[in-house]
Amino acid sequence: MTKRVPPRTTVVVVGAGHSGLAVSQRLGAEGIDHVMLERGEVAHSWRTQRWDSLRLLTPGWMNRLPGLPEPVLGPADDDEFLTAAQVASLVTGYADTISAPVHENVGVERVSPTDDGYLVETSTGPWSAENVVLATGSVRGVTPALAADLPPGLPSVHAIDYRRPSQLPPGGVLVVGAAASGVQIAAELQASGRQVTLAVGEHVRAPRRYRGRDIFAWIDAAGVLDERWDEVEDVVRARRLSSFQLVGGTETLDLNTLQEAGVRVVGKLAGLREGTALFSGSLTNMAALADLKLNRLLNTIDETVGGTGERPEPTRVPAPVLSASLTSGEIRSVVWATGIKPDHSFLDADVFDHKGAIRHDGGVTGPAGLYVTGLPVLRRRRSTYIDGARADSADLVSHLTRRLADPTRRTAG
Q1: How many CB atoms lie within 10 A of CB 171?
Q2: Does the pLDDT value for residue 75 go beyond 80?
Q3: Residue 88: CB partners within 8 Å, gap ≥ 6?
Q4: Per-residue pLDDT tens over the stretch 25-53
């Protein structure tokens, strides 16, 4: 039997979200042939891994993507924030506009180096390519190992699988994690009539509005978003830092507003023992650290643009609660808002660090022709948001174009 020769292309882009599509637009503009492989539909994670009420943390003017006319894609009003469904529609429309060569419902099963590039094995057959761009984003919910010690029968769900309060059984809820996802879900569950206990570790506090403008307008004006990855003092830590404690809109959502709504705030979940949740006594320190970083951010803004604004009230720290029963009926479910990570388990190459993350230098990995995009602080702090795809895709495709123009270039194998 004759062995089938895989179809050959110059670049395979894995993932058809906004980051992958931005790369596709740049590749098309350079006349570089490529295909995009998407495990579901375009914008799959925005369709399947977000709760119903979610809105982007970033305002409409930060929805810019390459190849589209300015000033913005999406709402022109600075104070409008897209829902997940609107983002999915936006990204799908973008794919149509740029005629991206997307192959939907194709699961990538293995990417491995060969003598002339990479073999990309998929659910519908293999592809051969000299270059591969991984644009899958963060799609895997991270649940701490201690979750295995939950009492049998106690329902739990990760934030990427949470949709709405009615998904959970009646009664109190323990929400673990106080970044954007955790505080938003905690607020929604408390408003639904449940008693929420929020376990708080290290977090990044920010006001929604400052000196009459959205906080992102100030952060952008101060140049913070354009700080390059190779200028950040500790880029590894920056890439792992939790998201701003924000919600899309005009209202601030922090530990003070949550406590005013009735949420019980406790320290970081430190362990589960014999049906009891044990909380750290570090809440005072965590709150003080968040307040310190908040004031440092506002000081940076003031020093850059001039003038000063009012500082938010320091976080109010309640009397410590060091444990809670998970078997008495007080808490009847758990939501893990403990972060998301990429899933590059299909990649068969020596590129992972000891924590399983891809080693890269601004999206350029060690093996020739292998790139990654769509990750926090990839090439600048702006990379964390949709808006970062414009500059990141330009930089990576420029690198790839220079590589293709070099007749002495190495291949992955």
Answers
A1: 12
A2: no
A3: 43, 46, 47
A4: 999 999 999 999 999 999 998 999 899 99
**279 to 328, 336, 399: CA distances (angstroms):** 17, 15, 48
- Show the 3-state SS of 300-332: HHHHHHCCCCCCCCCCCCCCCCCEEECCCCCEE
Question: Please, what are the domains in the chain?
Answer: 8-140+340-409 (3.50.50.60), 143-336 (3.50.50.60)
Residues near 167 by beta carbon (within 8 Å), at least 6 away in sequence: 157
- pLDDT, the chain, mean: 93
Phi, psi dihedral angles at 384 (to 5 degrees): -65, -20
Strand residues in 337-373 grouped as ranges (E)? 340-342, 370-372
Task: Determine contact, residues 23/412, Cβ cutoff 8 Å.
Answer: no
pLDDT digit string, tens, across residues 380-395: 999 999 999 999 999 9
Residue 35 in 3-state DSSP?
strand
DSSP state of 169: P
Q: What is the mean pLDDT of residues 179-205?
A: 97
Mean of pLDDT values over 357-386: 96
The residue behind tokens 């992955």 is: 412
What is the CA 250 to chain-centroid distance, rounded? 21
DSSP per-residue codes, 238-307: HHHSPPEE--SSSS--SHHHHHHTTPEEEE-EEEEETTEEEE-S-HHHHHHHHHHHHHHHHHHHHHHH-S
Cα gap 373→339, rounded to integer Å = 18
Q: Contact at 8 Å (CB) between 413 and 370?
A: no
Within 13 Å, how many C-alpha atoms sit on residue 133's CB side?
Answer: 35
Predicted pLDDT at 137: 86
- How far is the C-alpha of 387 from the C-alpha of 19, rounded, in Å? 9
Rg (CA), the chain: 23
Three-class SS of residue 367?
A: coil
233 Cβ neighbours under 8 A, 6+ residues apart: none
pLDDT of the residue at 61: 87
| Whole-angstrom distance, CA of residue 84 vs CA of residue 280 | 34
